[in-house]
Amino acid sequence: MALFDQALLNPGVRKREVFGWAMYDFANSGYTTVVLTAVFNAYFVSVVARGADWGTLAWTATLAVSSLLVMLTMPAIGALADLRAAKKKLLALSTAGCIVATALLAWVGEGDLGLAVTAIVLSNLFYSYGESLTSAFLPELARREAMGRVSGWGWGFGYFGGMLALGLSLGFVIWAQSHGMKATQFVPVTMLITAGVYAAACIATFVFLKERAVPDSDGASSGGVMASLHRLGRTFQQAWRYRDFMWLLVCAVAYQAGIAVVIALAAVYAEQVLGFQQVETMKLIFLVNIASALGAFAFGYWQDRLGHRRALALTLMGWILMTVLAVAATSAMLFWFAAMLAGLCMGSSQSAGRAMAGLLAPASRRAEFYGLWTFAVRLSAIIGPMTYGLVTWLTAGNHRLAILSTGMFFVLGLLFLMRVDMHRGERAAAAGSELV
To answer: Which end of the chain is less packed: N or C, by CB atoms within 10 Å?
Structure first.
Protein backbone atom coordinates (compact mmCIF):
# COMPACT_ATOMS: atom_id res chain seq x y z
CA MET A 1 0.00 0.00 0.00
CA ALA A 2 3.05 2.30 -0.20
CA LEU A 3 1.77 3.82 -3.43
CA PHE A 4 -1.43 4.86 -1.68
CA ASP A 5 0.18 7.68 0.32
CA GLN A 6 -2.33 9.06 2.81
CA ALA A 7 -0.86 12.55 2.37
CA LEU A 8 -2.12 12.61 -1.23
CA LEU A 9 -5.74 12.10 -0.19
CA ASN A 10 -8.31 14.61 1.01
CA PRO A 11 -9.07 14.78 4.75
CA GLY A 12 -11.33 11.94 5.86
CA VAL A 13 -10.54 9.75 2.84
CA ARG A 14 -9.18 6.33 3.79
CA LYS A 15 -6.89 4.21 1.66
CA ARG A 16 -9.43 1.42 1.36
CA GLU A 17 -11.87 3.88 -0.20
CA VAL A 18 -9.35 4.70 -2.94
CA PHE A 19 -8.88 0.96 -3.39
CA GLY A 20 -12.65 0.55 -3.80
CA TRP A 21 -12.74 3.39 -6.31
CA ALA A 22 -9.81 1.92 -8.27
CA MET A 23 -11.54 -1.47 -8.26
CA TYR A 24 -14.21 -0.03 -10.52
CA ASP A 25 -11.58 0.66 -13.16
CA PHE A 26 -10.40 -2.91 -12.52
CA ALA A 27 -13.94 -4.23 -12.98
CA ASN A 28 -15.01 -2.41 -16.14
CA SER A 29 -11.71 -2.66 -18.03
CA GLY A 30 -12.53 -6.22 -19.02
CA TYR A 31 -15.46 -4.88 -21.05
CA THR A 32 -13.36 -2.59 -23.23
CA THR A 33 -10.50 -5.09 -23.45
CA VAL A 34 -12.43 -8.23 -24.39
CA VAL A 35 -15.60 -6.90 -25.99
CA LEU A 36 -14.47 -3.76 -27.80
CA THR A 37 -10.76 -4.35 -28.41
CA ALA A 38 -9.67 -7.98 -28.56
CA VAL A 39 -12.52 -10.39 -29.27
CA PHE A 40 -16.03 -9.28 -30.13
CA ASN A 41 -15.12 -6.54 -32.62
CA ALA A 42 -13.30 -9.00 -34.89
CA TYR A 43 -16.04 -11.60 -34.26
CA PHE A 44 -18.65 -9.03 -35.30
CA VAL A 45 -16.90 -8.29 -38.61
CA SER A 46 -15.94 -11.85 -39.55
CA VAL A 47 -18.83 -13.93 -38.11
CA VAL A 48 -21.86 -11.77 -37.35
CA ALA A 49 -21.47 -9.76 -40.57
CA ARG A 50 -20.12 -12.88 -42.37
CA GLY A 51 -17.03 -10.98 -43.59
CA ALA A 52 -19.03 -8.57 -45.75
CA ASP A 53 -17.39 -5.39 -47.08
CA TRP A 54 -19.72 -3.34 -44.90
CA GLY A 55 -18.79 -5.24 -41.74
CA THR A 56 -16.25 -2.73 -40.38
CA LEU A 57 -18.57 0.19 -41.15
CA ALA A 58 -21.46 -1.61 -39.42
CA TRP A 59 -19.32 -2.13 -36.31
CA THR A 60 -18.25 1.50 -36.17
CA ALA A 61 -21.83 2.67 -36.84
CA THR A 62 -23.06 0.54 -33.92
CA LEU A 63 -20.56 2.18 -31.59
CA ALA A 64 -21.55 5.57 -33.02
CA VAL A 65 -25.23 5.02 -32.18
CA SER A 66 -24.32 4.09 -28.63
CA SER A 67 -22.07 7.12 -28.28
CA LEU A 68 -24.78 9.41 -29.64
CA LEU A 69 -27.18 8.17 -26.97
CA VAL A 70 -24.56 8.86 -24.31
CA MET A 71 -24.04 12.37 -25.66
CA LEU A 72 -27.76 13.11 -25.50
CA THR A 73 -28.24 11.82 -21.96
CA MET A 74 -25.03 11.84 -19.90
CA PRO A 75 -24.68 15.59 -19.26
CA ALA A 76 -28.19 15.72 -17.79
CA ILE A 77 -27.54 12.54 -15.78
CA GLY A 78 -24.38 14.14 -14.39
CA ALA A 79 -26.29 17.28 -13.42
CA LEU A 80 -28.98 15.13 -11.75
CA ALA A 81 -26.30 13.19 -9.86
CA ASP A 82 -25.00 16.48 -8.43
CA LEU A 83 -28.44 17.77 -7.48
CA ARG A 84 -29.51 14.56 -5.77
CA ALA A 85 -26.03 13.49 -4.55
CA ALA A 86 -26.80 10.23 -6.33
CA LYS A 87 -23.55 9.30 -8.09
CA LYS A 88 -23.27 5.98 -6.27
CA LYS A 89 -26.91 4.99 -6.85
CA LEU A 90 -26.73 5.81 -10.55
CA LEU A 91 -23.39 4.00 -10.77
CA ALA A 92 -25.03 0.86 -9.39
CA LEU A 93 -27.81 1.01 -12.01
CA SER A 94 -25.42 1.60 -14.91
CA THR A 95 -23.15 -1.22 -13.71
CA ALA A 96 -26.01 -3.71 -13.60
CA GLY A 97 -27.10 -2.64 -17.09
CA CYS A 98 -23.62 -3.14 -18.60
CA ILE A 99 -23.17 -6.56 -16.98
CA VAL A 100 -26.54 -7.85 -18.22
CA ALA A 101 -26.04 -6.50 -21.76
CA THR A 102 -22.52 -7.99 -21.93
CA ALA A 103 -23.87 -11.39 -20.89
CA LEU A 104 -26.51 -11.04 -23.62
CA LEU A 105 -23.70 -11.07 -26.21
CA ALA A 106 -23.19 -14.75 -25.39
CA TRP A 107 -26.30 -15.52 -27.45
CA VAL A 108 -24.99 -13.81 -30.61
CA GLY A 109 -24.15 -16.21 -33.43
CA GLU A 110 -23.50 -16.06 -37.16
CA GLY A 111 -25.76 -13.53 -38.87
CA ASP A 112 -27.42 -12.36 -35.61
CA LEU A 113 -26.87 -8.73 -36.54
CA GLY A 114 -29.92 -7.30 -34.76
CA LEU A 115 -29.13 -8.93 -31.43
CA ALA A 116 -25.45 -8.02 -31.66
CA VAL A 117 -26.17 -4.37 -32.43
CA THR A 118 -28.73 -4.09 -29.63
CA ALA A 119 -26.48 -5.67 -27.01
CA ILE A 120 -23.44 -3.60 -28.01
CA VAL A 121 -25.41 -0.35 -28.01
CA LEU A 122 -26.83 -1.04 -24.54
CA SER A 123 -23.63 -2.40 -22.98
CA ASN A 124 -21.52 0.49 -24.29
CA LEU A 125 -24.18 2.99 -23.18
CA PHE A 126 -24.20 1.71 -19.59
CA TYR A 127 -20.41 1.33 -19.58
CA SER A 128 -20.05 5.00 -20.51
CA TYR A 129 -22.46 6.07 -17.77
CA GLY A 130 -20.43 4.15 -15.21
CA GLU A 131 -17.12 5.51 -16.49
CA SER A 132 -18.33 9.10 -16.15
CA LEU A 133 -19.91 8.65 -12.72
CA THR A 134 -16.91 6.92 -11.19
CA SER A 135 -14.59 9.62 -12.59
CA ALA A 136 -16.63 12.26 -10.75
CA PHE A 137 -15.49 10.73 -7.43
CA LEU A 138 -11.81 11.49 -8.20
CA PRO A 139 -11.75 15.12 -6.99
CA GLU A 140 -13.48 14.03 -3.75
CA LEU A 141 -10.70 11.53 -3.04
CA ALA A 142 -7.46 13.21 -4.16
CA ARG A 143 -5.88 16.51 -3.22
CA ARG A 144 -5.60 18.88 -6.16
CA GLU A 145 -1.81 18.56 -6.32
CA ALA A 146 -2.10 14.74 -6.43
CA MET A 147 -4.93 14.37 -8.96
CA GLY A 148 -2.63 12.92 -11.62
CA ARG A 149 -1.17 10.29 -9.33
CA VAL A 150 -4.47 9.08 -7.95
CA SER A 151 -6.01 9.03 -11.42
CA GLY A 152 -3.00 7.01 -12.56
CA TRP A 153 -3.61 4.50 -9.76
CA GLY A 154 -7.12 3.92 -11.05
CA TRP A 155 -6.20 3.64 -14.72
CA GLY A 156 -3.15 1.49 -14.01
CA PHE A 157 -5.01 -0.84 -11.67
CA GLY A 158 -7.82 -1.02 -14.17
CA TYR A 159 -5.64 -2.54 -16.85
CA PHE A 160 -4.91 -5.47 -14.56
CA GLY A 161 -8.66 -6.11 -14.52
CA GLY A 162 -8.63 -6.08 -18.29
CA MET A 163 -5.74 -8.54 -18.26
CA LEU A 164 -7.61 -10.83 -15.86
CA ALA A 165 -10.70 -10.97 -18.06
CA LEU A 166 -8.63 -11.32 -21.22
CA GLY A 167 -6.29 -13.88 -19.67
CA LEU A 168 -9.18 -16.09 -18.59
CA SER A 169 -10.76 -15.70 -22.02
CA LEU A 170 -7.47 -16.45 -23.79
CA GLY A 171 -6.97 -19.60 -21.74
CA PHE A 172 -10.44 -20.80 -22.65
CA VAL A 173 -10.01 -19.96 -26.34
CA ILE A 174 -6.73 -21.89 -26.54
CA TRP A 175 -8.39 -24.87 -24.85
CA ALA A 176 -11.47 -24.63 -27.09
CA GLN A 177 -9.44 -24.45 -30.29
CA SER A 178 -7.37 -27.47 -29.21
CA HIS A 179 -10.67 -29.36 -29.01
CA GLY A 180 -11.77 -28.25 -32.46
CA MET A 181 -14.34 -25.68 -31.37
CA LYS A 182 -15.32 -22.82 -33.67
CA ALA A 183 -15.55 -19.11 -32.88
CA THR A 184 -19.33 -19.38 -32.56
CA GLN A 185 -18.74 -21.78 -29.67
CA PHE A 186 -15.93 -20.13 -27.72
CA VAL A 187 -16.53 -16.39 -28.24
CA PRO A 188 -19.91 -16.49 -26.41
CA VAL A 189 -18.20 -18.02 -23.38
CA THR A 190 -15.68 -15.16 -23.29
CA MET A 191 -18.61 -12.74 -23.02
CA LEU A 192 -19.87 -14.56 -19.93
CA ILE A 193 -16.36 -14.57 -18.45
CA THR A 194 -16.16 -10.79 -18.98
CA ALA A 195 -19.56 -10.17 -17.40
CA GLY A 196 -18.64 -12.38 -14.44
CA VAL A 197 -15.35 -10.58 -13.75
CA TYR A 198 -17.13 -7.23 -13.96
CA ALA A 199 -19.81 -8.33 -11.48
CA ALA A 200 -17.37 -9.83 -8.97
CA ALA A 201 -14.76 -7.05 -9.04
CA CYS A 202 -17.14 -4.11 -8.65
CA ILE A 203 -18.40 -5.38 -5.27
CA ALA A 204 -15.45 -3.68 -3.54
CA THR A 205 -16.48 -0.36 -5.08
CA PHE A 206 -19.94 -0.40 -3.58
CA VAL A 207 -18.67 -1.65 -0.21
CA PHE A 208 -15.89 0.94 0.30
CA LEU A 209 -16.68 4.00 -1.83
CA LYS A 210 -18.67 6.75 -0.09
CA GLU A 211 -21.03 9.34 -1.49
CA ARG A 212 -19.70 12.59 0.01
CA ALA A 213 -21.80 15.02 -2.01
CA VAL A 214 -24.74 16.76 -0.36
CA PRO A 215 -28.09 17.05 -2.19
CA ASP A 216 -28.97 20.50 -3.47
CA SER A 217 -31.92 21.65 -1.36
CA ASP A 218 -33.61 23.44 -4.26
CA GLY A 219 -32.90 20.84 -6.95
CA ALA A 220 -33.82 17.89 -4.75
CA SER A 221 -37.31 19.23 -4.28
CA SER A 222 -38.03 20.79 -7.67
CA GLY A 223 -38.51 18.10 -10.24
CA GLY A 224 -35.09 16.47 -10.40
CA VAL A 225 -34.59 15.95 -14.13
CA MET A 226 -36.03 19.33 -15.16
CA ALA A 227 -33.93 21.05 -12.51
CA SER A 228 -30.83 19.24 -13.73
CA LEU A 229 -31.53 20.25 -17.34
CA HIS A 230 -32.00 23.87 -16.24
CA ARG A 231 -28.71 23.72 -14.35
CA LEU A 232 -26.98 22.16 -17.37
CA GLY A 233 -28.36 24.87 -19.65
CA ARG A 234 -27.00 27.52 -17.30
CA THR A 235 -23.57 25.88 -17.49
CA PHE A 236 -23.58 26.15 -21.31
CA GLN A 237 -24.68 29.79 -21.04
CA GLN A 238 -21.77 30.45 -18.69
CA ALA A 239 -19.30 28.52 -20.86
CA TRP A 240 -17.18 31.62 -21.40
CA ARG A 241 -16.30 31.49 -17.69
CA TYR A 242 -14.83 28.01 -18.19
CA ARG A 243 -13.15 28.52 -21.56
CA ASP A 244 -10.13 26.41 -20.59
CA PHE A 245 -12.38 23.50 -19.67
CA MET A 246 -14.16 23.98 -23.00
CA TRP A 247 -10.83 23.97 -24.88
CA LEU A 248 -9.95 20.79 -23.03
CA LEU A 249 -13.21 19.28 -24.27
CA VAL A 250 -12.35 20.23 -27.87
CA CYS A 251 -8.89 18.74 -27.39
CA ALA A 252 -10.46 15.59 -25.97
CA VAL A 253 -12.79 15.21 -28.94
CA ALA A 254 -9.74 15.22 -31.22
CA TYR A 255 -7.27 12.95 -29.45
CA GLN A 256 -9.89 10.62 -27.97
CA ALA A 257 -11.17 10.05 -31.52
CA GLY A 258 -7.81 8.50 -32.32
CA ILE A 259 -7.83 6.44 -29.13
CA ALA A 260 -11.34 5.24 -29.93
CA VAL A 261 -10.05 3.89 -33.25
CA VAL A 262 -7.29 1.95 -31.51
CA ILE A 263 -9.71 0.49 -28.94
CA ALA A 264 -12.40 -0.45 -31.44
CA LEU A 265 -10.33 -1.49 -34.45
CA ALA A 266 -6.86 -2.65 -33.38
CA ALA A 267 -7.83 -6.31 -33.63
CA VAL A 268 -9.56 -5.72 -36.97
CA TYR A 269 -6.45 -3.99 -38.35
CA ALA A 270 -4.15 -6.76 -37.10
CA GLU A 271 -6.29 -9.48 -38.68
CA GLN A 272 -7.14 -7.72 -41.94
CA VAL A 273 -3.70 -6.20 -42.70
CA LEU A 274 -1.16 -8.50 -41.04
CA GLY A 275 -3.14 -11.74 -40.98
CA PHE A 276 -3.21 -12.19 -37.19
CA GLN A 277 -5.25 -15.11 -35.87
CA GLN A 278 -7.62 -14.86 -32.88
CA VAL A 279 -5.11 -16.15 -30.32
CA GLU A 280 -2.33 -13.90 -31.66
CA THR A 281 -4.59 -10.89 -31.41
CA MET A 282 -5.56 -11.70 -27.83
CA LYS A 283 -1.91 -12.13 -26.84
CA LEU A 284 -1.12 -8.78 -28.45
CA ILE A 285 -3.88 -7.00 -26.54
CA PHE A 286 -2.79 -8.70 -23.32
CA LEU A 287 0.71 -7.24 -23.66
CA VAL A 288 -0.74 -3.86 -24.62
CA ASN A 289 -2.62 -3.87 -21.32
CA ILE A 290 0.64 -4.45 -19.44
CA ALA A 291 2.18 -1.44 -21.20
CA SER A 292 -0.95 0.62 -20.51
CA ALA A 293 -0.84 -0.20 -16.80
CA LEU A 294 2.82 0.80 -16.58
CA GLY A 295 2.11 3.99 -18.49
CA ALA A 296 -0.80 5.00 -16.27
CA PHE A 297 1.02 4.28 -13.00
CA ALA A 298 4.32 5.95 -13.93
CA PHE A 299 2.88 8.85 -15.85
CA GLY A 300 0.53 9.77 -13.02
CA TYR A 301 3.58 10.71 -10.95
CA TRP A 302 5.33 12.46 -13.83
CA GLN A 303 2.15 14.35 -14.65
CA ASP A 304 1.96 16.05 -11.26
CA ARG A 305 5.65 17.02 -11.55
CA LEU A 306 5.80 18.06 -15.21
CA GLY A 307 2.48 19.83 -15.30
CA HIS A 308 -0.73 18.41 -16.70
CA ARG A 309 -0.72 20.13 -20.08
CA ARG A 310 2.90 19.28 -20.81
CA ALA A 311 2.39 15.67 -19.76
CA LEU A 312 -0.62 15.22 -22.04
CA ALA A 313 1.30 16.85 -24.91
CA LEU A 314 4.08 14.27 -24.56
CA THR A 315 1.61 11.41 -24.80
CA LEU A 316 0.02 12.90 -27.93
CA MET A 317 3.45 13.04 -29.56
CA GLY A 318 3.82 9.37 -28.68
CA TRP A 319 0.48 8.62 -30.34
CA ILE A 320 1.60 10.36 -33.54
CA LEU A 321 4.75 8.22 -33.63
CA MET A 322 2.67 5.10 -33.02
CA THR A 323 0.47 5.90 -36.01
CA VAL A 324 3.49 6.30 -38.30
CA LEU A 325 4.89 2.94 -37.14
CA ALA A 326 1.55 1.15 -37.60
CA VAL A 327 1.21 2.45 -41.17
CA ALA A 328 4.79 1.43 -41.98
CA ALA A 329 4.50 -2.04 -40.43
CA THR A 330 4.74 -4.90 -42.91
CA SER A 331 5.85 -7.45 -40.34
CA ALA A 332 4.38 -8.56 -37.05
CA MET A 333 7.44 -7.37 -35.09
CA LEU A 334 7.13 -3.69 -36.01
CA PHE A 335 3.38 -3.78 -35.40
CA TRP A 336 3.96 -5.30 -31.96
CA PHE A 337 6.35 -2.44 -31.18
CA ALA A 338 3.75 0.10 -32.33
CA ALA A 339 1.14 -1.64 -30.18
CA MET A 340 3.39 -1.47 -27.09
CA LEU A 341 3.87 2.26 -27.68
CA ALA A 342 0.10 2.63 -28.03
CA GLY A 343 -0.35 0.89 -24.69
CA LEU A 344 2.06 3.26 -22.91
CA CYS A 345 0.33 6.27 -24.43
CA MET A 346 -3.20 4.99 -23.83
CA GLY A 347 -3.00 4.64 -20.07
CA SER A 348 -1.14 7.90 -19.59
CA SER A 349 -3.23 10.06 -21.94
CA GLN A 350 -6.57 8.88 -20.59
CA SER A 351 -5.40 9.30 -17.00
CA ALA A 352 -4.05 12.78 -17.76
CA GLY A 353 -7.28 13.91 -19.40
CA ARG A 354 -9.42 12.69 -16.49
CA ALA A 355 -7.21 14.49 -13.96
CA MET A 356 -7.25 17.74 -15.96
CA ALA A 357 -11.05 17.64 -16.17
CA GLY A 358 -11.23 17.27 -12.40
CA LEU A 359 -8.96 20.26 -11.84
CA LEU A 360 -10.98 22.50 -14.17
CA ALA A 361 -14.41 21.48 -12.81
CA PRO A 362 -16.12 23.52 -10.05
CA ALA A 363 -16.23 21.49 -6.83
CA SER A 364 -20.01 21.68 -6.52
CA ARG A 365 -20.64 20.55 -10.13
CA ARG A 366 -18.17 17.73 -10.68
CA ALA A 367 -20.59 15.07 -11.91
CA GLU A 368 -22.13 17.61 -14.27
CA PHE A 369 -18.75 18.63 -15.72
CA TYR A 370 -17.65 15.01 -15.99
CA GLY A 371 -20.91 14.48 -17.85
CA LEU A 372 -19.72 17.12 -20.31
CA TRP A 373 -16.35 15.36 -20.44
CA THR A 374 -18.16 12.12 -21.30
CA PHE A 375 -20.13 14.02 -23.97
CA ALA A 376 -16.82 14.97 -25.60
CA VAL A 377 -15.36 11.47 -25.30
CA ARG A 378 -18.48 9.89 -26.79
CA LEU A 379 -18.50 12.40 -29.64
CA SER A 380 -14.93 11.34 -30.35
CA ALA A 381 -16.05 7.70 -30.29
CA ILE A 382 -18.38 8.56 -33.17
CA ILE A 383 -15.97 10.66 -35.21
CA GLY A 384 -12.89 8.42 -34.93
CA PRO A 385 -14.24 4.94 -35.72
CA MET A 386 -16.75 6.27 -38.27
CA THR A 387 -13.93 8.05 -40.11
CA TYR A 388 -11.94 4.82 -40.12
CA GLY A 389 -14.94 2.81 -41.28
CA LEU A 390 -15.77 5.25 -44.06
CA VAL A 391 -12.19 5.35 -45.31
CA THR A 392 -12.03 1.54 -45.52
CA TRP A 393 -15.40 1.42 -47.25
CA LEU A 394 -14.54 4.15 -49.79
CA THR A 395 -11.09 2.69 -50.53
CA ALA A 396 -12.20 -0.95 -50.88
CA GLY A 397 -10.70 -1.98 -47.56
CA ASN A 398 -7.49 0.11 -47.38
CA HIS A 399 -6.81 -0.14 -43.65
CA ARG A 400 -3.38 1.50 -43.92
CA LEU A 401 -4.89 4.69 -45.28
CA ALA A 402 -7.55 4.52 -42.57
CA ILE A 403 -4.99 4.29 -39.75
CA LEU A 404 -3.02 7.13 -41.36
CA SER A 405 -6.12 9.34 -41.21
CA THR A 406 -6.32 8.48 -37.51
CA GLY A 407 -2.98 10.17 -36.89
CA MET A 408 -4.49 13.53 -37.82
CA PHE A 409 -6.72 13.39 -34.75
CA PHE A 410 -3.68 13.33 -32.47
CA VAL A 411 -2.13 16.26 -34.35
CA LEU A 412 -5.33 18.28 -33.90
CA GLY A 413 -5.49 17.34 -30.23
CA LEU A 414 -1.98 18.67 -29.72
CA LEU A 415 -2.89 21.98 -31.40
CA PHE A 416 -6.06 22.44 -29.33
CA LEU A 417 -4.22 21.58 -26.13
CA MET A 418 -2.03 24.66 -26.61
CA ARG A 419 -5.12 26.82 -25.97
CA VAL A 420 -5.61 25.42 -22.46
CA ASP A 421 -4.28 27.55 -19.58
CA MET A 422 -4.44 25.40 -16.43
CA HIS A 423 -3.85 28.25 -13.95
CA ARG A 424 -6.59 30.38 -15.48
CA GLY A 425 -8.91 27.39 -15.69
CA GLU A 426 -8.40 26.44 -12.04
CA ARG A 427 -9.18 30.00 -10.94
CA ALA A 428 -12.40 29.87 -12.98
CA ALA A 429 -13.33 26.54 -11.39
CA ALA A 430 -12.80 27.95 -7.88
CA ALA A 431 -14.99 30.94 -8.70
CA GLY A 432 -17.59 28.72 -10.34
CA SER A 433 -18.12 26.72 -7.14
CA GLU A 434 -19.66 29.86 -5.66
CA LEU A 435 -22.07 30.35 -8.58
CA VAL A 436 -24.38 27.39 -8.01
So the answer is: N
